[in-house]
């Protein structure tokens, strides 16, 4: 029997009733716990894994109900590693029943090698799964995840998602080991696998990223030529950019890409997003002061009022010379997103 193709964003809108492209993404994310079955070398939560425990079911269900009442239509369950949470199907089913149009998981994908498990997620109402895929070849991804066979596993997981009618997408954490692969990754994901919902995440410099410093990190200046090439390639091949796909950037690094950047300032749609961590619920932007900090020169920048500033850990390794105040906002954006 043949395999199914990946669901496109347009397929998902039709099949799951997601709001049409152009609509505001009203999302909530719930971190179920820190337990994980991988040991990615860049992980920013490495030191939390051993103390990991799950949120109580009562807190999970309360949040789902509350957020649905507030009008959110996308809920993301993340961790740690969500597929280790024993009640995942139950809470996914509950979220769909409460009215969420989209139930999304963030996962390392290891457990999705099991076809039956993926089918059970589809049956429970999970409609999008973001798998961590950090390279365009096995040597790179397996090394970064510290698991031999992880790349092959991710490809099988993607196929299982396609076959189960769940939309697959990817998160790519940019490091010194893989930054040159961004164009190749765009080809692999967008063209060969038909998966367009992928993000390039410039890692937060805490945990493994901070410990390994320059041996694992990469400066924005070194990574940008490869990022720009990847984006040009996507445009040439008509690979759509579904939504903001660059994480942990600030506008002055690449002003023309600001419309692709998430999590840099208080004016972005994700800044209103709420995240449940433990028994506390926080607005996303409230967690940034721990990680990001404006520099003295930021006071001269047009984005000063909105920008949270660069990642503190990044500045401790690479310094502040790449961050230059902007006198005016960018007006021309060479790449567009389907959802703002
Ligand atoms: S406020 Fe600072 S970090 Fe933000 S864009 Fe301006 S110069 Fe860059």
Relevant terms:
single chain, 340 residues, alpha/beta, TIM Barrel, nine-stranded mixed β-sheet, 10 helices, globular, binds iron/sulfur cluster
What's the gist of this structure?
With 340 residues, this protein is α/β, with parallel strands linked by helices. It is built from ten helices and nine strands.
What does this structure look like?
The chain starts with 8 loop residues before the first helix and ends in a 22-residue tail after the last helix. A hairpin with a 2-residue loop joins β8 (274-277) and β9 (280-283). It has a single domain (9-318), classed as Alpha-Beta Barrel (TIM Barrel), CATH 3.20.20.70. It has 10 helices and 9 strands. Helices cover 31% and strands 13% of the residues. It has helices at residues 9-16, 57-69, 88-97, 115-124, 138-145, 150-164, 182-192, 207-212, 220-236, 312-318; strands at 27-31, 74-78, 102-107, 128-132, 167-174, 198-202, 246-247, 274-277, 280-283. A 9-stranded mixed β-sheet has the order 7-6-5-4-3-2-1-8-9. The chain has 340 residues and is of the alpha/beta class. The chain is globular and about 55 Å long. α3 packs parallel to α4 and α7 packs parallel to α9. Iron/sulfur cluster binds at residues 250-252, 294-295, 298, 301, 303-304, 307, 309-310, 323, 325-326.
């Amino acid at each position: 029997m043949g395999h199914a193709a990946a669901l496109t964003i347009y397929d998902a809108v039709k099949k799951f009733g997601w709001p049409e492209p152009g609509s505001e993404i009203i999302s909530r994310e719930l971190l179920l716990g820190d337990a994980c079955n991988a040991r990615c070398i860049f992980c920013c939560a490495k030191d939390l894994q051993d103390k990991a425990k799950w949120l109580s079911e009562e807190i999970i269900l309360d949040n789902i109900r509350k957020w649905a009442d507030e009008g959110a239509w996308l809920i993301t369950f993340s961790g740690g590693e969500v597929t280790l949470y024993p009640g995942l199907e139950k809470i996914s089913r509950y979220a769909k029943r409460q009215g969420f149009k989209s139930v999304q998981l963030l996962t390392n994908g290891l457990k999705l090698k099991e076809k039956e498990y993926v089918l059970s997620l589809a049956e429970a109402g999970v409609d999008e799964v973001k798998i961590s895929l950090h390279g365009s070849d096995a040597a790179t991804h397996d090394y970064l995840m510290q698991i031999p066979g992880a790349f092959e596993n991710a490809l099988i997981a993607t196929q299982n998602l396609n076959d189960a009618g769940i939309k697959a997408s990817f998160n790519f954490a940019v490091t010194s080991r893989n930054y040159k692969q961004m164009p190749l990754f765009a080809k692999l994901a967008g063209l060969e696998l038909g998966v367009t919902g992928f993000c390039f995440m410039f890692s937060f410099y805490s945990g493994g990223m901070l410990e390994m410093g320059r041996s694992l990190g990469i400066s924005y200046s070194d990574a940008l030529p490869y990022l720009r090439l990847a984006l040009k390639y996507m445009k040439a091949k008509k690979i759509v950019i579904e939504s903001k796909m660059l994480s942990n950037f600030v506008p002055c690094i690449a002003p023309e890409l600001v419309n692709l950047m998430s999590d840099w300032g208080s004016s972005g749609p994700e800044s209103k997003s709420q995240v449940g961590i433990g028994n506390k619920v926080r607005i996303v932007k409230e967690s940034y002061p721990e990680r990001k900090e404006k520099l003295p020169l930021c006071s001269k920048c047009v984005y000063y009022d909105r920008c949270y500033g660069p990642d503190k850990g990044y500045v401790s390794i690479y310094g502040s010379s790449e961050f230059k105040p902007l006198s005016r906002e960018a007006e021309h954006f060479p790449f567009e997103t389907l959802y703002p």
